[in-house]
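Morning run. Coffee first, then this:
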Amino acid sequence: MKLHSDFRSDKMGKKNCIWLGLLASIVIITGVYFFFLKHAGIMKHREGPNEMTRFNITVSPNGDGDFRTISEAIQAAPSRSLAPFFIRVFSGVYNEIVAVPQDKVNLVLVGDGAEVTREIGRA
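And here it is:
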């Protein structure tokens, strides 16, 4: 029995339509996901801090901040945080070796600049 050529092309058309539908669904779901992440504040740190940024912790070597060392501030930060955790590092000389544990994620350290903030590590 010979199949009609329209029958075969109709099957291929349906198959292609299914794949296009799946692809469109993936694109839409991904876009909605990132839209909610951005508006929930989870991806806001990618834009960088500005004058409206609320710092969770401040560090100052002269004692004006919450901590005197950067390492103490990092240890005080929450582990596996889903939201960005902002640490403000004021100008000064920090005589320490700074290590960030693997479970401390989404940390954002903001300083006054390399000209006025120095981290001097001695092994």
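Strands lie at 57-59, 85-89, 92-94, 107-111, 117-119. Good start to the day.
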